[in-house]
Model the fold of this input.
Amino acid sequence: MPEERLDFPPGLVENQIKDQAKAHHMSEEEVVEKVLLEKQAVKSFVPIEKLGEIAVFLAAENATTVSGSIFTLDGAWSAQ
Done:
């Protein structure tokens, strides 16, 4: 039987917000708005619940024919 695997590459995490705020000498709120989301088309981070929803879908019977696919949940960041 072939190996089944589901990987979630890391995205932006809370520590990065703190590190960027220090590096830019801004508050966390300012660095989110002015640095991290500046080029983000959707202007918000992808909620963790969305990752859970795609994981549930991929684990379900409906996804048995999904193979070798990449689902990008990045709020259109990669569309730059």
